[in-house]
Amino acid sequence: MNQTAQPPRDSGDRGPGLVDLLTLGGYTLVCVVAGLGLGWWADSATGLTPALTLLGLALGVGVAVFGTWVRVRPLLDDGARANENMAGGQSGDGTGDEQRRRRG
């Protein structure tokens, strides 16, 4: 049983990992390509080229931006909360909420 000592792992959360980022990028790609494809298909069916392709692209980008915001917002909130706790010397026990209420 020859085991080498492993350095202690940092218990702090470092944010999203590679899988999270690839998932977010894949989601964005699927939304944009799906919107573009559906718009192109609708254009070919109705003859309104390029109006529906551009509309589909805009909708795909909009859905991608909204989905990205929903996925990233909790990470931003956690980061802001951690920064407040560090700046105020808080221990992460929720007392930073009281300071936030006092500030307005």
Structure description:
By secondary structure, the chain is an all-alpha fold. It has a domain at 18-83. It has three helices and no strands. Helix 1 (18-46) packs antiparallel against helix 2. The chain is elongated and about 65 Å long. The protein starts with 17 loop residues before the first helix and ends with a helix. The model has no long low-confidence stretch (mean pLDDT 80).
Sum this structure up briefly:
The protein has 104 residues and is mainly alpha-helical. The chain has helices at residues 18-46, 51-87, 96-103. The chain has a domain at 18-83.
Ends apart, CA distance between termini: 59 Å
Beta-strand percentage? under 5%
The tally of helices reads 3
Given the helix and strand composition, which structural class is it?
mainly alpha
Unreliable runs: none
Instruction: Provide mean pLDDT, rounded.
Output: 80
**Sequence of secondary-structure elements:** HHH
Spell out the key features of this protein.
single chain, mainly alpha, 71% helix, elongated
SSE layout:
Layout: H1 18-46, H2 51-87, H3 96-103
